[in-house]
Amino acid sequence: MLATVVVQLRFHPILKTGEHYADFQERLRPRFPGYEALETQMFEMSFGPQPSPAGVVRSERVHRFLAVDEPTIAALNTTSVSIEYAAHKERATIIEDFALVLDALRAYGPVPIRLGLRYVNIIEQHRLVVHSSDEIPWSELLTPAFATVPAGLATIDSSTNYLAEVTAPRDPGKMTVKYGFLVARGAKNQHFRLDTDRFVEGPVEIDAVPALLERFSDDIFQVFMMAAGPKLIEWMEAVP
Hints:
alpha+beta
């Protein structure tokens, strides 16, 4: 059900991260001993006197540090550091891992400008069986607020797909929630996607990050429980 968890800290560009990443790696090696580098392309927009925006494509090397026997990756480039989980982890583990990453980052003297925690949940109707082999209706897996197409344009069925997005203020920062019924490319079955990004933009104190992540996690869990219907909770409680 939980597809991805990402925690990321963005900062003003630090060019030396591209040259002295070995020092960063040494601090992470006990938890993330694997390593790989990826070249990515970033498109930067700039707006001038012309009617249409101009932009440039910039190459960026991302240093990725890999955990052993689990799909967890820490990544560093000149403007951000992050950890991505592709399997469920306890909140305490996420905060502990990111504290390790931040401790390694301190040597660069970062000036943080954004902290975010993102959870992506994928709910597949055909995989959730509680007490029988019968497919559970969406109306029992989700609460009415999330199992209804916005504006009442249609009813939920296998041919109705949509993705809604809401951004609202939270103290501190904001939260963006994207949710809806989709069919992945190449897939036959519809799924429900709940993508919640809890973040704060502006100056962030490094020492305050663990407490902020704990608050962000609480807010994201609250959204999930607002969406979860009785059969989904029953299935979750039955899973060992």
